[in-house]
Write a structure and sequence with these properties.
This protein is of the alpha/beta class and 362 residues long. The chain contains 11 helices and 13 strands. Helix 6 links the parallel strand 5 (140-144) and strand 6. The chain is globular and about 65 Å long. It starts with 5 loop residues before the first helix and ends in an 8-residue tail after the last helix. Mean pLDDT is 90; it is low at 4-16.
Length: 362
Amino acid sequence: MNAVTPMEIDTAVAALPLHGGPDAGGVPLHDFSTNSNACGPCPQALRSVQAADASRYPDPAYTALRVQLAGLHAVDPGRIVLAGSASEFIHRATAWAARQGATRVAVPAHSYGDYAHAAQAWGLQVLHAAAGGLQAAAGLHWACEPSSPLGQVDPALALWHAHGCGTAVALQVLDFAYAPLRLDGQPTHAPPSAWQLWTPNKALGLTGVRAAYAIAPAHETPGRIAALQGLAPSWPVGAHGVAMLAAWAQPAVQQWLQHSLDTLRGWKSAQQALCTALGWRVVAGSLANYVVAQWPFAHAEQTERVLHGLRAHGIKLRDCSSFGLPGHVRLGVLAPAAQQALARAFHDVQRAAATMPDSPNL
């Protein structure tokens, strides 16, 4: 058996989808690269996770948990499908669509990379909204509101409300990853034709706990729901994920979330003002606890240099090149102390760059 070379490992790592959060440099001191609730972790949910009994398997049918989640959303428990994470469900839904004969997947113009990654893994054509993909006969449609990375209204939802699925094969999935962190006071409304994908770990500030669930549309047939469930491995959610999702369904946890949104609104306003003061152009329209800003740099190597410089200062931002927005960064809203650290680090990186010979000015 041949040994795996370092070059092969580097190639495999480079092929992985790009995400925010910890990297080879460890946990950033101030991590703006994720959209986790900076007021978290939610104390009640954290206690539940810490108290989880990891010595036993969960109920493989998740009977009690499905009842709790169904009660939170006022739906029948038969419509609840557990998932190991949002990414796991994205890959599972794509596999289901491919097995049903889908050849195309429609994704938003700028979106989470796992939608396209899963489609490509199954050899399906990826249609972007900007290219008219939402109007095409795709077998699987993805939408996310607030969208990622821009945090805006997803135009697909108006079409879904107006036209439904369009075909018997089509599967529409509305990613509710950031709906609980929507700061404009308005709810995200799922069209009756759409599945809903919920990942509470972001809203609870517990992104290290991997667990999610989907809600099937009221009209969905038991056979199709069972088929999608049947593509999951046994026990997709472990004991800690069960504890987090059960806590999510509790009124006290939902109340904590609502209080945290008030804090995030104030922090977001200050962070947007800081970005403007630093000479960054904030993209308008974000409804959520994150913003995208365009940097005033003419060259990609300048953006990369600044990102590396900030990372050396313990600051991590999310480069938006993989979202199709080169020269832009996404910043999750953090507390004022982290914002001040960002400002100091950015000025330090600028000063250091100015002293470097043969280096483009930042």
